[in-house]
Write a structure and sequence with these properties.
- A five-stranded antiparallel beta sheet has the order 1-2-9-4-7, with no helix packed on it.
- It has a domain at about 40-140: Jelly Rolls.
- It is of the alpha+beta class.
- It contains three helices and twelve strands; from the N terminus they run αβαβββββββββββα.
- The longest helix is centred in the first third of the chain and has 18 residues, at about 1-20.
Length: about 190
Amino acid sequence: MNKTVNTIADRVTQAAEIIKSTKYNLRELTFDKKPLAKPGFGVKTNTNRTAKLLATQFSLEPRLLPAKAFSFPYHFHRHAEELFIVLKGTMTLRTPRGFQKLKQGDVVFFEKGPAGAHQLYNHSRQPCVYLDLAIQPGADVVEYPDSGKLLIAPEGGIYRKDSAVGYFDGEENPWAHWLAAHKTKKGKKC
């Protein structure tokens, strides 16, 4: 019981410290200075990530998309929904319905599943800033249709979709696992 109280108390203390800085001023955002992970891709995330720390199923991430860069690979979420609000600049959105230009003030919603697939490209010479609001109920699977990959979030494992295995693969001898798991400390079987 003490452990639970300490955990809750620690979380409340942490939240109280974080809550002091949860206010965003959209005119005073600062973004990561890390180099691009892959040339041509380049979303930068706001360095104040407190909104993610406080919420359990909601994230708000101000993002900067540099000129002539893609956001993320074309993807959709199986269990999360997203909403983008363009704060500054212009960019092109790719969805299953085609391409469209987005400008300051535009709001776009991405439902979960293949119909919500999306990717951004900043076709201009100026950076574009947008808010990425997402509802993420725990674990998510992100699918990348162009490259046939799956990402398991939040763990981050990335797998090829075509490397799927059958439900009973590797289950040829369950008794061997039972026997190994049910040995006593002295090595005797239960």
